[in-house]
Please model this.
Amino acid sequence: MTEITPAILVDSFSELDEKLAKFVNITNMVQIDICDGKFVSSISWPMQQGDKSSIERVLDEEDGLPYWNSLDFEFDLMVLNAHKQFDFFARLGAKKIVFHLEAETETDFKEFLESLDPYFKDNISIGLAINTTTDINKLDPFINHIDFVQCMGIEKIGFQGEPFDEKALEQIKNLKNKYPELKISVDGSVNENTAPLLIEAGADRLVIGSALLQSFDIRETYRYFESL
Model:
Protein backbone atom coordinates (compact mmCIF):
# COMPACT_ATOMS: atom_id res chain seq x y z
CA MET A 1 0.00 0.00 0.00
CA THR A 2 1.06 3.56 -0.64
CA GLU A 3 2.20 5.49 2.42
CA ILE A 4 -0.14 8.42 3.08
CA THR A 5 0.62 11.41 5.33
CA PRO A 6 -2.01 14.09 5.95
CA ALA A 7 -0.76 17.70 5.86
CA ILE A 8 -2.12 20.69 7.73
CA LEU A 9 -1.37 24.41 7.61
CA VAL A 10 -2.60 26.36 10.64
CA ASP A 11 -2.58 29.89 12.01
CA SER A 12 -2.85 29.17 15.74
CA PHE A 13 -2.37 26.58 18.44
CA SER A 14 -6.13 26.17 18.75
CA GLU A 15 -6.43 25.48 15.00
CA LEU A 16 -3.58 23.00 15.32
CA ASP A 17 -5.58 21.17 17.98
CA GLU A 18 -8.74 21.25 15.84
CA LYS A 19 -7.10 19.89 12.68
CA LEU A 20 -4.96 17.25 14.37
CA ALA A 21 -8.10 15.88 16.03
CA LYS A 22 -9.46 14.98 12.59
CA PHE A 23 -6.71 12.40 12.08
CA VAL A 24 -6.61 10.64 15.45
CA ASN A 25 -7.29 6.91 14.97
CA ILE A 26 -6.88 7.33 11.20
CA THR A 27 -3.11 7.70 10.89
CA ASN A 28 -0.06 7.83 13.13
CA MET A 29 1.74 10.68 11.34
CA VAL A 30 0.70 14.22 10.35
CA GLN A 31 2.82 16.74 8.49
CA ILE A 32 2.58 20.29 9.86
CA ASP A 33 3.51 22.94 7.29
CA ILE A 34 5.57 25.80 8.70
CA CYS A 35 5.80 29.06 6.70
CA ASP A 36 7.99 31.98 7.78
CA GLY A 37 6.81 34.82 5.53
CA LYS A 38 10.38 35.11 4.17
CA PHE A 39 11.23 32.01 2.16
CA VAL A 40 7.54 31.87 1.23
CA SER A 41 5.11 34.78 1.35
CA SER A 42 2.66 33.08 3.69
CA ILE A 43 3.22 32.82 7.44
CA SER A 44 1.82 30.16 9.73
CA TRP A 45 1.96 28.83 13.27
CA PRO A 46 4.28 29.03 15.14
CA MET A 47 6.18 31.72 13.22
CA GLN A 48 3.81 34.62 13.90
CA GLN A 49 4.32 37.07 16.71
CA GLY A 50 1.83 36.69 19.53
CA ASP A 51 1.01 34.45 22.46
CA LYS A 52 3.82 31.93 22.88
CA SER A 53 2.63 30.42 26.16
CA SER A 54 1.43 27.15 24.60
CA ILE A 55 4.72 26.66 22.79
CA GLU A 56 6.73 27.51 25.89
CA ARG A 57 4.85 24.83 27.84
CA VAL A 58 5.87 22.27 25.23
CA LEU A 59 9.49 23.44 25.18
CA ASP A 60 9.61 23.33 28.98
CA GLU A 61 8.21 19.77 28.82
CA GLU A 62 5.19 20.79 30.88
CA ASP A 63 2.92 19.71 28.03
CA GLY A 64 3.08 18.22 24.54
CA LEU A 65 1.59 19.20 21.21
CA PRO A 66 -2.08 18.23 20.87
CA TYR A 67 -2.53 14.44 20.59
CA TRP A 68 1.19 13.81 21.01
CA ASN A 69 0.36 10.44 22.55
CA SER A 70 -1.59 9.37 19.43
CA LEU A 71 0.26 11.07 16.57
CA ASP A 72 3.82 11.59 15.40
CA PHE A 73 4.71 14.93 13.85
CA GLU A 74 6.55 15.82 10.68
CA PHE A 75 7.49 19.48 10.26
CA ASP A 76 7.78 20.79 6.70
CA LEU A 77 9.98 23.83 7.19
CA MET A 78 9.33 26.39 4.46
CA VAL A 79 11.68 28.60 6.43
CA LEU A 80 14.81 30.49 5.43
CA ASN A 81 17.92 28.78 6.85
CA ALA A 82 15.68 26.41 8.80
CA HIS A 83 18.62 24.31 9.96
CA LYS A 84 19.39 27.09 12.45
CA GLN A 85 16.06 26.33 14.14
CA PHE A 86 16.48 22.56 14.16
CA ASP A 87 16.71 22.34 17.96
CA PHE A 88 13.44 24.24 18.36
CA PHE A 89 11.47 21.84 16.18
CA ALA A 90 13.21 18.81 17.65
CA ARG A 91 12.05 19.97 21.08
CA LEU A 92 8.49 20.34 19.77
CA GLY A 93 8.52 16.59 19.23
CA ALA A 94 9.48 16.14 15.58
CA LYS A 95 9.68 12.60 14.23
CA LYS A 96 10.52 13.89 10.75
CA ILE A 97 11.81 17.27 9.56
CA VAL A 98 11.77 18.47 5.96
CA PHE A 99 14.16 21.22 4.91
CA HIS A 100 13.88 23.03 1.57
CA LEU A 101 16.97 23.02 -0.61
CA GLU A 102 16.30 26.49 -2.00
CA ALA A 103 16.02 27.93 1.52
CA GLU A 104 19.47 26.77 2.57
CA THR A 105 23.07 27.76 1.82
CA GLU A 106 24.87 24.68 0.49
CA THR A 107 28.03 24.90 2.62
CA ASP A 108 26.26 25.73 5.89
CA PHE A 109 23.57 23.13 5.38
CA LYS A 110 26.03 20.38 4.51
CA GLU A 111 28.07 21.19 7.62
CA PHE A 112 24.88 21.01 9.68
CA LEU A 113 23.98 17.57 8.30
CA GLU A 114 27.50 16.22 8.77
CA SER A 115 27.71 17.42 12.36
CA LEU A 116 24.21 16.37 13.45
CA ASP A 117 24.20 14.63 16.81
CA PRO A 118 23.92 10.81 16.44
CA TYR A 119 20.92 10.83 18.80
CA PHE A 120 18.98 13.03 16.38
CA LYS A 121 20.13 10.96 13.39
CA ASP A 122 18.67 7.87 15.08
CA ASN A 123 15.41 9.47 16.19
CA ILE A 124 14.48 12.07 13.55
CA SER A 125 14.20 11.36 9.83
CA ILE A 126 15.59 14.16 7.67
CA GLY A 127 13.98 15.03 4.34
CA LEU A 128 15.03 17.54 1.71
CA ALA A 129 12.36 19.21 -0.44
CA ILE A 130 12.98 20.43 -3.97
CA ASN A 131 10.90 22.64 -6.24
CA THR A 132 9.53 21.43 -9.56
CA THR A 133 12.24 23.39 -11.39
CA THR A 134 15.17 22.20 -9.26
CA ASP A 135 18.03 20.38 -11.00
CA ILE A 136 18.16 17.02 -9.20
CA ASN A 137 21.97 17.04 -9.41
CA LYS A 138 21.90 19.72 -6.71
CA LEU A 139 20.98 16.95 -4.28
CA ASP A 140 24.36 15.23 -4.73
CA PRO A 141 26.20 16.93 -1.81
CA PHE A 142 23.44 15.93 0.62
CA ILE A 143 22.15 12.59 -0.59
CA ASN A 144 24.19 10.49 1.86
CA HIS A 145 22.96 12.53 4.82
CA ILE A 146 19.19 12.50 4.26
CA ASP A 147 16.48 9.86 4.60
CA PHE A 148 14.15 10.97 1.81
CA VAL A 149 13.46 13.64 -0.80
CA GLN A 150 10.20 15.54 -0.97
CA CYS A 151 9.19 16.62 -4.46
CA MET A 152 6.77 19.51 -4.60
CA GLY A 153 3.76 18.96 -6.81
CA ILE A 154 3.08 22.67 -7.10
CA GLU A 155 5.02 25.68 -8.33
CA LYS A 156 3.91 28.15 -5.63
CA ILE A 157 4.68 26.58 -2.27
CA GLY A 158 3.39 27.67 1.12
CA PHE A 159 -0.29 27.44 0.21
CA GLN A 160 -2.80 24.60 0.05
CA GLY A 161 -5.12 24.16 -2.93
CA GLU A 162 -2.57 25.19 -5.58
CA PRO A 163 -2.75 23.68 -9.11
CA PHE A 164 -0.64 20.63 -9.97
CA ASP A 165 2.64 21.16 -11.81
CA GLU A 166 3.23 18.26 -14.23
CA LYS A 167 6.99 18.85 -14.15
CA ALA A 168 6.93 16.93 -10.87
CA LEU A 169 6.21 13.68 -12.72
CA GLU A 170 9.36 13.83 -14.82
CA GLN A 171 11.37 14.92 -11.79
CA ILE A 172 10.23 11.86 -9.82
CA LYS A 173 11.13 9.53 -12.70
CA ASN A 174 14.59 11.10 -13.01
CA LEU A 175 15.18 10.78 -9.26
CA LYS A 176 14.22 7.09 -9.30
CA ASN A 177 16.58 6.48 -12.20
CA LYS A 178 19.48 8.23 -10.51
CA TYR A 179 18.84 7.07 -6.93
CA PRO A 180 16.87 3.78 -7.16
CA GLU A 181 16.90 3.24 -3.37
CA LEU A 182 15.88 6.80 -2.50
CA LYS A 183 12.50 7.21 -0.82
CA ILE A 184 10.48 9.86 -2.64
CA SER A 185 7.65 11.79 -1.02
CA VAL A 186 5.38 14.18 -2.91
CA ASP A 187 3.61 17.17 -1.39
CA GLY A 188 1.29 19.62 -3.11
CA SER A 189 -1.86 19.13 -5.19
CA VAL A 190 -2.06 15.43 -4.41
CA ASN A 191 -5.66 14.41 -5.14
CA GLU A 192 -7.72 11.65 -6.78
CA ASN A 193 -6.59 12.77 -10.24
CA THR A 194 -2.88 13.22 -9.59
CA ALA A 195 -2.19 10.46 -7.04
CA PRO A 196 -2.23 7.54 -9.56
CA LEU A 197 0.11 9.49 -11.86
CA LEU A 198 2.54 10.22 -9.02
CA ILE A 199 2.62 6.59 -7.91
CA GLU A 200 3.18 5.42 -11.48
CA ALA A 201 6.09 7.88 -11.76
CA GLY A 202 7.71 6.33 -8.68
CA ALA A 203 6.46 8.18 -5.60
CA ASP A 204 6.68 6.13 -2.39
CA ARG A 205 4.67 8.46 -0.18
CA LEU A 206 1.93 11.01 -0.76
CA VAL A 207 1.48 14.02 1.50
CA ILE A 208 -2.12 15.16 1.22
CA GLY A 209 -3.77 18.34 2.53
CA SER A 210 -6.90 19.76 0.90
CA ALA A 211 -8.07 16.49 -0.67
CA LEU A 212 -8.39 14.99 2.82
CA LEU A 213 -9.52 18.02 4.81
CA GLN A 214 -12.21 18.97 2.30
CA SER A 215 -13.60 15.46 1.88
CA PHE A 216 -16.93 14.43 3.41
CA ASP A 217 -15.40 11.36 5.05
CA ILE A 218 -11.71 11.76 5.89
CA ARG A 219 -11.31 8.15 7.01
CA GLU A 220 -12.71 6.68 3.78
CA THR A 221 -10.78 9.15 1.62
CA TYR A 222 -7.59 8.27 3.48
CA ARG A 223 -8.24 4.56 2.86
CA TYR A 224 -8.85 5.24 -0.83
CA PHE A 225 -5.46 6.91 -1.23
CA GLU A 226 -3.79 4.22 0.84
CA SER A 227 -5.25 1.51 -1.41
CA LEU A 228 -3.53 3.02 -4.45
